[in-house]
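--- STAGE predict ---
source: upstream dedup step, 1 unique chain passed
mode: sequence only
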Amino acid sequence: MLRAAKAVEDAGVPAVTIVSSGFMAQARAIRKAIGAPDLQIAEYPGVIPLDSPAQFEEKVRTVLLRSALENLRTEVVETKTAAEPFPEDIVFRGNFDEVQEFFHTREWSDGAAIVPPTSERVEAFLRWTDYDRNKVLGVLAPEYREASVLSVAVNGVMAGCRPEYMPVLIAAVEAICDPHFRIEDAGSTPGWEPMIVVSGAVVDQLGFNTEVGSMRVGRRANTSIGRFLRLYFRNVAGLRPGGTDKGSIGLGFNVAMAENEKAVVELGWPSHREDRGYTREDSVVTVRSVLAISPPVYSAGTDPKDLAWPIVNNLAGTTWGWFITGLYFNQWHPLILMSPSVAGGFARAGWSKNDIRKFLFDNARIDAGTLERYSEAVFGNRIVISELAKHAKFDPLFTGSSDLARRVPMLLNEASTDIVVGGDPARNQSKIYLNNQEQGAPVSRKVALPVGWNERIAAAGQR
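--- STAGE serialize ---
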């Protein structure tokens, strides 16, 4: 709404943005970030969805209208902040503990100790890409800072990455710079986290864990590359909790996922990167939002339907009413991390990834009334599915009736679900990762490897 108010003000019409109490800090931070610190904000006191109609009317009449009128007559005076350092400035000199305190007080760290980004360490990272250090990969909201190759190197050092991870880090940043990713919404209240999925030869070359405990911290590639992206959200995009980041509770999840290439080849299935439109020879990074993670999903038996039903039930249980947001924005892309043993059970029974996807679409169901009732809590007004579906290319199952008891799919279509093979090959477990509709929709980028990569990475592995 602040961006809309700025457009109105730019057109010469005075505007006031109405913001509830819990969003005031975020609103002040965003108006400064979009270069409009004089935008007027009127505060609604409280949490609108939890107020009764009578309370809402009383607050609007006695508080909100008065605040809006006063704000139109009042000039906003913003406190000036110190200018940012230039990209290659040395911002601090001190010992390790002093560096930690300096970065922490300026909110340049994630709360854990960072590796000091000395010039020598940053240069080591820059030697692992053929991109110019000053190349700008994009501009990231909400603070509209340039995402440069140099800033990738700096944050890679801070996150504890190895220099040879640099091509993967660059690909991840290229992905979040894509407008389809919608990083400007990454500070929304659901509190989703970005997740990197890596597929291709670089998985083994860089030592990613694809088996037991693959989504736990512990392996340097998975852990530090996952941490890097959250640091980059914070330090370059400017997403900081309590200000531009309004994630109400948050997920607390930042480990990169990697595909088990050997298992995929043995299955005869296409890799995740091929599903995303790339070739088997490519190495590809995909970045997506993760809003929720299912419990461990155990499959058993030799009938593929028996293997699939636990996945169906856990997909439905984890998703529940939140699917209304996928319908509303016409974006929904769950991801299943499936152990090689479960994937092997499907493959031996003759099922492909597409067979699994079709079974999920045909059987994951929820009653329309639940979705419509939940929409009131999520959006503040009721979303009627049959009306919504008239304006999008939804399956006829969504539009064929207005009966609230009817069962509708919990996926947009048969192709909605991504499947990555990974995890403990000795266990019959999968996990489901839900994205946040159009916010953080999956975006993929090919990893641009520097000249002489194979020789250099082989030498690096001998250190």
